Amino acid sequence: MLPKYKRILLKLSGEALLGNKAGSGDPFDPAIINQYAQDIKAITELGVQVAIVIGGGNIYRGMNEADSGIERAHGDYMGMLATMINGMAIQAMLEKLGIYTRLQSAIKMEQVAEPYIRRKAMRHLEKGRVVIFGGGTGNPYFTTDTAGSLRAIEMKADVILKGTRVDGIYTADPEKDPTATKYETISYQECISKGLKVMDMTAFTLCMENKLPIIVFDMNTPGNLMSVVQGNNVGTLVQ
User: Fold this and answer.
1) By CB count within 10 A, which of 79, 196, 219, 237 is most buried?
2) Directed axis angle between helix 72-96 and helix 30-44, to 10°?
3) Which structural domains are found in the chain, ordered by start?
4) Are 52 and 12 in contact, with CB atoms under 8 Å apart?
5) Angle at CA 13, nearest 5°, toward 10 and 19?
6) What is the DSSP string of 48-109?
7) What is the pLDDT of residue 96?
8) 28 pLDDT band (50/70/90 cuts)?
9) Band of pLDDT at residue 209, cut at 50, 70 and 90
């Protein structure tokens, strides 16, 4: 079956990499990284061009300056380094499966990653390499959601696929409210008016202004990524 989307930006949270290791003190669950890599490999074999942005929350989350004593900008740079560690973990697992990858960083660290250069990243995608963008936007005060939206627009991606632990966008938090119902599709404006937290507002506004659709889906179910790419009714489409 031919894919519906030719080029995607896959946005993953750092916390997702904890898998079943949450609370153990380990930053990664190798089983979940392997599952992600297998799912990504399957869609690249269909000819889908894949770019990835990953958060760093499994290693370091920005903390309240009053509590931690670490100022916001400094803490954000620490978070950027965490995203690079996660990017390297995903890269290692993909390459173990024989997928050619490139890790690009928004902050310079030549020994482990290429610097982010838009035209170079586009060329890697055209050649069928999976491109992982680390280091967020390279600027403090911006989240990795914003980095994902920005890179998706720069790469001319067809869609942002936001892989989470829940299978879409609900009227309320389904883990707290059993009566919450899921949206199949929803508009950008509805998300804003109903206060639904899909991404932070900067990231969401970027997508809305550039008419870039977002699909929120459960990445932890094997095969879901393939279903989304083929255009099946998985997750929630924001457009």
Assistant:
1) 219
2) 70
3) 7-180+188-238 (3.40.1160.10)
4) yes
5) 110
6) -EEEEEE--TTT-----HHHH---HHHHHHHHHHHHHHHHHHHHHHHHHTT--EEEEESS--
7) 97
8) confident
9) very high
Task: Name the pairing type of β-strands 236-238 and 214-218.
Answer: antiparallel
Phi-psi region of 43 (alpha: psi -120 to 50; beta: other; left: phi over 0): alpha
Report DSSP state, residue 161. E
Sequence letter at residue 206: L
Classify each residue of 24-49 as buried b or exposed e, where b means 16 or more C-beta atoms within 10 Å of its C-beta: eeebbbeebbebbbebbbebbeeebb
Instruction: Count Cβ atoms below 10 Å from residue 204 Cβ, excluding itself.
Output: 21
Overall residue count recorded for the chain in this entry: 239
Tokens 């499994």 label which residue?
58
What is this structure's pTM?
A: 0.94
- The residues near 228 (Cβ < 8 Å, ≥ 6 apart) are 161, 215, 217, 234, 235
10 and 51 Cβ atoms separated by less than 8 Å: yes
pLDDT of residue 2: 83
Three-state SS for 43?
helix
